[in-house]
UniProtKB/TrEMBL annotation, chains A, B:
GO annotations of cellular component type: cytoplasm
Localization annotation: Cytoplasm
Gene name of the record: argJ
GO biological process: L-arginine biosynthetic process; ornithine biosynthetic process
Name of this chain's protein: Arginine biosynthesis bifunctional protein ArgJ
Length: 408, 408
């Protein structure tokens, strides 16, 4: 079950002026499951995004990148679940374009003004006819206050829908930021997450919007892992409609910093929600690596811990078998690491120093922390001034169960 | 249960003249479990080895390296299970040296002529008093035909003892090669395995012996993974007693090639046995990456597949959800990989080409192969002439069960 995570009430999710959302049941997933989302944007909205670095990236990722690069103004996003349209070759490209064309026909815009997204099983042909048949219902369903249903429509193995709204005053105007995300397995984003959509009614110039989404991704979705599997379909999109009247034109301005902070806060909540709802997760683990020489070595050590099946199963068992963390630190690939110089903490408990178990460490202290559902592993490297924080979850029977049966 | 793996009969394991083995129950593990092995070598034997690259390497690894480097002739190896003496700081170093001193006293040699090895739980103090108390019984038990019991004495979570003997004629002399290994979890060797010991009665000069063990490790233990966790205690040792009369002095000689081939065959069997006995394994998976530009990129892609929890759980389920393999290939980190150029096979079944599912692929063909207990994944990259082969296993409920409870 998700770790300390609930979906916000529908009323807590604030509409973003200039964005309408409609959902439908297109029959890609089993009957009774919503699997199609259309987000229509008013004219003038700007969109920026970051995408997976997986070389087997999905056809919709390629098409979305193309359409963004054309700069012709994006008028809608379309998301299907149940099928990733990845590992589908040329036919997959045709299917992604056909999806855009079908929606463009309904909305009266160009196909190149549509961004397509897919998530689900890989290497199966996209049922594009079902999507085309489902689009009119999604368009008919479009409303500004539909974020709650939208967050549910993009779920796959997710148990809990992920969403958040925040407001901030910028230049005397109230600016709203609302976001949704999905993801639970195949989570080790590299530039983005499975799928995340954040919209604001601030006006943000295109290059600044790209900078803002990249910075937010680097401090949120690029700091999480469930199983170390980087998806073929990762995408995080940031939409700025400009309807609030607040305008951001300078990366050095107070308004930029304010909005960046809120967008990053929403992105971090959505990213952490994916880990809290990680497949089979029973524990949410924060990994802080402090005192490194650079971010790369901090993240290497952090991900070695986060990806170790031995560490993850020990946390599942609430077993303070913490030598497994030392082993992971040791094989992380930091060649000149002085293991005698580092300190390992579990929450406030000093576990290891001087290359071995701390004299003050008591098994019952480790046991106490291991029984919590939220735990922080802190490694102080004592070789520099750089810190990094990652978030992951444990590895349970249910992870195996879910992934030994998931095909939808 | 181990995948198509049984322990050879005691009679199939041939003594190696110049090596005696004795085992004992020192009480490090729970009562009734043998946990101590002494291998005594006749004077003149040469020993070479490769060790873990884990920065948190165990104290016995450091001491064994030191003693080998001194070149004073190795007279015995001592192995305890139940405790890794890793992550134990300065006390661990003192304990490893004390173990050597205790055995040296019994055998009438110098402590620096003993190589110590430990395997088991990390970050717990070595019960050196129990080991010292158990050594006389191990010494009293020493026999040349004791390889079968020795293979059992070094097991931890292993279900099946791992051992192999081969003979080869070199220069008119019969040369014997006998080896044992242990390992089941925390298996992603990087220079060696958990623990492996191979002995021959050929005479091999020291630098050649080091070359031989390094080559054998690179083609065997360095090609396996169970869970991607590189141990703190990996070691593969090659012993050459010279008692057969066959002498190898030149790396370019026919005798060197013959012995290298047999040592590599034994090492490969022992390494594969560790995967077949991988914690919770139900399937043995051979991963062949062909047509790469260099070995590094072949291994990157191979290990990405081998470490993917999603791929491993799909194999556990016998579910041909093979898009997960494409995703792993895509995120392996080969930045300029042309995914449209590669082909993916499951045994003889062509699964994917041209960036997507092969037109000829039928789900029932994939299903048929997935139901086997031995399966080959073959990726033809079509970008060079280099091949690499790795071996791994699937990921089951039992892996989680074993590692959520293992502390001994």
């Amino acid at each position: 079950m998700p770790v300390n995570l609930t979906t916000p009430a529908a009323g807590e999710l604030l509409p973003v002026a200039g964005v309408s959302l409609g959902i439908a049941e297109a029959g890609i997933k089993r009957p009774g499951r919503k699997d199609l989302l259309v987000m229509q944007l008013d004219e003038g909205a700007r969109v920026a995004g970051v995408f997976t670095t997986n070389r087997f990236c999905a056809a919709p990722v390629t098409v979305a990148r193309e359409h963004l690069a054309q700069g012709g103004g994006i008028r809608a996003l379309v998301v299907n679940t149940g099928n990733a349209n990845a590992g589908t070759g040329e036919q997959g490209m045709r299917d992604a374009r056909a999806t855009c064309a079908a929606l463009a026909g309904l909305l009266g815009c160009k196909a190149s003004q549509i961004l397509p997204f897919s998530t689900g099983v890989i290497m199966e042909p996209l049922p594009v006819d079902k999507i085309a048949a489902g689009l009119p219902a999604a368009v008919a369903n479009m409303r500004a206050d539909n974020w709650f249903d939208a967050a549910h429509a993009i779920m796959t193995t997710d148990i809990v829908a992920k969403a958040m709204s925040k407001q901030v005053q910028i230049g005397g105007k109230t600016v709203t930021v609302t976001g949704i995300s999905k993801g639970s397995g195949m989570i080790h984003p590299n530039m983005a997450t499975m799928l995340g959509y954040i919209a604001t009614d601030a006006a943000v110039a295109q290059p600044l919007l790209q900078q803002m989404v990249s910075e937010a991704a680097n401090r949120s979705f690029n700091c999480i892992t469930v199983d170390g599997d980087t998806s073929t379909n990762d995408a995080l999109m940031l939409i700025a409609t400009g309807k609030s009247g607040a305008e951001i034109t300078d990366a050095g301005s107070a308004g930029y910093a304010q909005l960046q902070a809120v967008v990053t806060e929403v992105a971090t909540h959505l990213a952490q929600a994916i880990v809290r709802d990680g497949e089979g997760a029973t524990k949410f683990i924060t990994i802080k690596i402090e005192g490194g020489r650079d971010e790369a070595e901090c993240k290497k050590i952090g991900y070695a811990i986060a990806h170790s099946p031995l560490v993850k199963t020990a946390f599942f068992a609430s077993d303070p078998n913490l030598g497994r963390i030392l082993a992971a630190i040791g094989y992380a690939g930091v060649g000149d690491l002085d293991v005698a110089a580092l300190k390992l903490y579990l929450d406030d408990v000093l576990v290891a120093e001087n290359g071995g178990r701390a004299a003050s460490y008591q098994e019952e202290d480790g046991q106490r922390v291991m029984k919590q559902s939220d735990i922080t592993i802190r490694v102080v490297l004592n070789r520099g001034a750089v810190n990094a924080t990652l978030w992951t979850c444990d590895f349970s029977y249910d992870y195996v169960k879910i992934n030994a049966s998931y095909r939808s």
